[in-house]
Amino acid sequence: MSESTTEIIAGGAVLAVAIGFLVYASQGAGFGTGGRTYDLRASFQSAEGITVGTDVRLAGVKVGMVSKLDLNPQTFYADATLTLREPVRLPTDSAALVSSEGLLGGNFVELRPGGLPDDLTPGAEIEDTQGSVSLIGLLMKFVGQGAKDAVAQ
């Protein structure tokens, strides 16, 4: 083989690998699903750590994302719109929680399915919600309690 043929084959292989990475990345980001979706609403007292694009997970599996996040001026809660993939259906008594991946990880919306036989319809609101817990607030409570215990002794 000549040198130019080898360069063409190597260039083609690099191009094929690059296209493969793009396809893999687009599927991981949710662009390649192409399936049907529907929206559910949820209001959180604190939506700290979540933004538009944050994962929505059920049993640790990504089933959607936060597609809209606004402050409700009447309730002063964060109103979120959760866009879920079509095969996922939740009972009407399901819960939505803002959860953390760990001390250094990001936040996500965790769905906990209920047990009622009826499912939430597209556009319905998840009534049972729990906002994010501030790690700094928890540490301050712990430190404050430790100081009170030390003074009491």
Report on this model:
The protein is α/β, with parallel strands linked by helices and 153 residues long. It folds into two domains: 32 residues; 99 residues, no CATH class. The chain contains two helices and eight strands, in the order αββββββββα. The chain has an eight-stranded mixed beta sheet with strand order 7-1-4-3-2-6-5-8, with no helix packed on it.
The main sheet orders its strands as: 7-1-4-3-2-6-5-8
Radius of gyration: 23 Å
Counting H and I runs of at least 4 residues, what is the number of helices? 2
Low-confidence stretches: none
Order of helices and strands: HEEEEEEEEH
Number of strands: 8
Helix-and-strand structural type: alpha/beta
Using the alpha-carbon principal axes, give the shape: elongated
Terminal CA distance = 86 Å
What topology emerges from the helices and strands here?
Elements: H1 3-28, E1 37-44, E2 55-58, E3 61-71, E4 78-85, E5 95-100, E6 107-112, E7 125-126, E8 128-130, H2 135-152
Parallel strand pairs: 1-7, 2-6, 5-8
Antiparallel strand pairs: 1-4, 2-3, 3-4, 5-6
Task: Give a brief outline of the structure.
This protein has 153 residues and is an alpha/beta fold. Helix content is 29%, strand content 31%.
List keywords for this structure.
single chain; 153 residues; alpha/beta; eight-stranded mixed sheet; 8 strands; 29% helix
